[in-house]
Amino acid sequence: MREAVYNSLMRSSKEQKGQPVFRFPKGWHQETDSPLPKDAIVGKLEGLYRMEQSQWWSLEALRKHQLNQLQELLAHAWHTVPYYRSRLESLGYQPDLQLDDVLWRSLPLLKRADIHNAGDELMSTKIPIDHGGTSTFQTSGSTGEPVKGKGTSLTSAYWDVLTLRDHYWHKRDLSGVLASIRVFSDKKMLPPDGGRSSNWGKATKGLFRTGPAIGLDIMTSVAEQADWLARNNPEYILTYPSNLEALARYCMENTVKLPALREVRTLGEIVTGSLRELCREAWNVGLVDTYSSKEFGYIALQCPEHEHYHVQSESVLVEVLDGEGEPCKPGEIGRLVITSLYNYAMPLIRYEIGDLAEVGSPCSCGRGLPVIKRILGRTRNMLTLPNGEQRWPLVGFSKFREIAPVKQFQFVQTSLQEVLVRLVVERPLLAGEEDGLREIIRESLGHPFDIRFEYMDVIHRGKGGKYEEFISELG
To answer: What's the distance, Cα to Cα, between the start and end of the chain in Å?
Structure first.
């Protein structure tokens, strides 16, 4: 019955526009005895239906939709959020003002320090009833003091629907086994067996029957991870890029086979072209990445036809700004500034999240959702040259193994003249190998830095299980 309702919704306008009618992919079987109320089921299906339409809107139509939503968000913040009432009044803003791009870009950016300093002043005193109850979130704190905040049932629903969109875009077979290797809050995911659930998670639970989801803590050794994967033979793997690289190399070097594997998925760190190639070489599968945060949920999903990302404009407004605060053009790199369109519990308006990204050109897939070509990582970890110029650090790792048996690395800029290189190696390096690495590193960084090596048994992950390849200790 629910499938008939959903396909009826899909036929309502898409056939008229000449676009394909939605059909559930292979392996998408609906629950026959769902614990969810009918309105929750229909709500998720309708949300996915609406997004199947809106992804084809033009940039102009998307922007009009966002400005309408931002108009309501600003009015809500002005009326019910003390922090924004004073901030907006100081700019001469009134809720009856018609919002346009000029007025929007006059609003000051929200910094991490502003959130900490504002405290409860950032919380709404009157959340709309139809947004549901509230829940709390806390970031990992990998970039400093964690950000704590609130969301609503509505923001959670957007997370679920966008998860379904990601599954649908990439035509995943939900009947397969999903293996996650990441940080888990409980102690049930420890080696050698990890943990097991009957469903892939909150987005699908009660809506679609799925195969099992298995989990293993990220702090498990790579050898134990590979053994666990070989024993479970999953169709899908979800983990951090740095862990995926170590896994792929280990499986290649130790002839670990994963015959059922169809796709690897990543989150939380930077994905490189060389990692995508490595996954094809190791397992003959593609890599699909997502860009998300605790504050906003999904920010961008990888295009189903390309390796770049589509901004999830139905849920967030994403700006990529240059050093002067102006929007970047395709091919330019800038700071990511994000606004949640539907978090009325704790509005985050023009929040500079701390990441860099490169703007992409409109996508040939036909979707009007804006394109991010690359997500580069934290602004705080930019390389600083002695003349004060900052740039994104290219470290030349793809050439390391041509010189020496490097298993793991991490760069730390300790001064304007020195870069510390932490290495995990298979054996002690020869002087000539160190010299070769220095030459590659200096060429990649674009300056003859003093390169100092430090050898370690393991380079530990930071808070939240994430791993940073380049760290700047400069203030």
So the answer is: 60
